[in-house]
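step=encode ok
step=design start
structure_in=
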């Protein structure tokens, strides 16, 4: 069996690894450079409880995704030969005033009801876990089973593991359309007019997934949502757990870097870093940890999160072209959902029933709107 994966971000690389490891002749076609778009710009959180807005199928899916990631990370490190810096330090989500406390108390309540592990802390208890926290902290919820990773190293690990399993990668390879014959995809049409043949095609093209011609009947619309991040320099170990608040977040790296984020902006395909974005992010970071006022600025960047109309991913077979699968629209959760997406797509390609019910994430939902 020959598979083409459109898109060499973290989702495409995870899918390629799982397919190639099962003997599928897999080629990844990346329009730019492998792993250099949203996957490169992320903060690297494996954090369903910090990102989720409420209970339901997506939160349940994210919790299973965290477990799926935990189950494969050691194998991935062995297969890829790259340490993705998977850290189990947990997350503190802090409130700096009474209104924020009320919001976090509601979050703690629904998450506990949904079966997630969450600990409610006073400001003093939170500062015992992380002394760098602002003295204005009045309340926090501790999420000890949420994790983090270096998203760039993680993406490289998936790509390296896929290559070692036999997958081929082509950079600067722009797919324009599906090559349709007899109602099925015979492969893909490239921007230079060439056709690459395949038995199955997986659309993992991130913010560009909706631009692949031939899937119009699925009515899947994707758009880029810009997110900016500021990177600061600090001594290794300055901050232990990742720190979230309603004003922003801080994610430490092992080498001392601190990633502060983020913005959510409708800016098209513009990846510019803006003064307004930097100001918002640094103001939020300083509110969480006032001591960062003396931290050195290292760099800032922006990425484009792939968003569907309902902000949920699109996973599984196309309802209009039977041998094409969607693996797109992961929005803010591509790092978290990377392992489970690769598992799901490999199951479907190999004719197995995935362990996850995909109804809420099927492309068919857009045909009904």
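sequence_out=
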């Amino acid at each position: 069996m020959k598979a083409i994966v459109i898109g060499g971000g973290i989702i495409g690389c995870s899918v390629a690894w799982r397919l190639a490891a099962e003997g599928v002749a897999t080629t990844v076609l990346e329009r730019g450079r492998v792993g250099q778009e949203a996957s490169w710009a992320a903060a690297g959180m494996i954090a369903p409880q910090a990102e989720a807005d409420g209970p339901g199928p997506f939160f349940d899916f994210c919790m299973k995704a965290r477990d799926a990631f935990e189950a494969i990370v050691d194998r991935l490190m062995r297969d890829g030969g790259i340490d993705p810096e998977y850290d189990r330090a947990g997350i503190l989500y802090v409130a700096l005033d009474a209104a924020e406390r009320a919001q976090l108390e509601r979050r703690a309540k629904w998450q506990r009801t949904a079966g997630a592990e969450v600990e409610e802390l006073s400001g003093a208890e939170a500062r015992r876990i992380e002394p760098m926290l602002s003295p204005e902290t009045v309340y926090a919820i501790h999420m000890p089973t949420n994790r983090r990773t270096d998203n760039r190293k993680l993406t490289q690990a998936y790509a390296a593991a896929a290559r070692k399993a036999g997958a081929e990668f082509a950079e600067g390879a722009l797919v324009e359309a599906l090559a349709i014959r007899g109602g099925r995809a015979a492969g893909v049409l490239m921007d230079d007019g060439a056709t690459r043949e395949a038995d199955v095609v997986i659309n993992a093209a991130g913010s560009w997934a909706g631009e692949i011609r031939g899937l119009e009947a699925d009515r899947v619309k994707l758009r880029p949502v810009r997110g900016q991040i500021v990177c600061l320099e600090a001594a290794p170990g300055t901050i232990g757990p990742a720190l979230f608040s309603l004003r922003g977040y801080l994610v430490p790296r092992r080498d001392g870097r601190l990633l502060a984020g983020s913005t959510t902006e409708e800016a098209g395909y513009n990846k510019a870093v803006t003064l307004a974005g930097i100001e918002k992010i640094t103001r939020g970071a300083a509110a969480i940890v006032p001591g960062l006022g003396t931290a050195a600025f290292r760099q800032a960047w922006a990425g484009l999160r792939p968003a569907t109309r309902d902000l949920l991913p699109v996973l599984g077979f196309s309802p209009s072209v039977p041998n094409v699968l969607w693996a797109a629209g992961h929005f803010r959760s591509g790092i978290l959902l990377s392992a489970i997406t690769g598992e799901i797509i490999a199951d479907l390609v190999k004719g197995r029933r995935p362990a996850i019910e995909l109804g809420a994430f099927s492309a068919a939902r857009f045909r009904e709107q």
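step=design ok
step=annotate ok -> The longest strand covers residues 296-307.
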